[in-house]
Design the sequence.
């Protein structure tokens, strides 16, 4: 069964492109039906338009979080979205939204959680290098009201080399993110992701 996916993002949507490409190659039985952003000039919206996907800017300021989330839910629900991906989304979802789509919102984080929980992208990679860590990676987890604390679906380690810079590390981690996202979508579509309490079991 084709999985209908909705995406929320604030940045370039590079990881989303990997999903679009995998769908085009028929490696995934899925369809991105809508992309939403709180940034009118976010390239993720252009990327969606270029691929014939509905792209919608929703205004978001200060205490309007629940209004944004309810508008987003309206867009997703009328399109029958089953799975929501957060890709470079720079805001925190309301408890209402997290509950409305419990265990249906996946977020990719550029570290091996719980390390650098709440951190963002290049700042995390800079910290990894500053601390001299030998391994970093990414984490895909279901979203709950507590930021970066939802059930972990998958993690993929990435080795840190002496020649790495924050930018090179970002590239390597992003490649890991894309691999994890694609595998998780496949498993979700096959009904092989089971949440038990705060733990995820992946069925073979």
Sequence:
């Amino acid at each position: 069964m084709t999985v209908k996916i909705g995406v929320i993002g604030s940045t370039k949507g590079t990881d989303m492109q990997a999903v679009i490409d995998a769908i085009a190659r028929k490696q995934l039985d899925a369809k991105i039906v809508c992309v939403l952003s709180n940034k009118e000039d976010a390239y993720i919206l252009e990327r969606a338009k270029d691929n014939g996907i509905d792209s919608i800017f929703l205004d978001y300021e200060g205490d309007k979080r629940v209004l944004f989330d309810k508008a987003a839910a309206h867009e997703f629900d009328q399109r029958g979205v089953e799975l929501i991906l957060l890709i470079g989304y720079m805001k925190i979802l309301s408890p209402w939204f997290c509950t409305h789509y419990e265990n249906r919102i996946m977020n990719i984080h550029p570290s091996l959680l719980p390390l650098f929980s709440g951190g963002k992208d290049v700042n995390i990679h800079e910290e990894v290098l500053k601390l001299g860590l030998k391994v970093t990676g990414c984490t895909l987890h279901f979203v709950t009201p507590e930021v970066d604390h939802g059930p972990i679906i998958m993690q993929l380690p990435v080795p840190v080399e002496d020649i790495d810079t924050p930018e090179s590390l970002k590239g390597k981690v992003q490649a890991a993110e894309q691999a994890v996202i694609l595998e998780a979508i496949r498993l979700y579509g096959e009904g092989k992701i089971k949440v038990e309490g705060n733990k995820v079991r992946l069925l073979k």
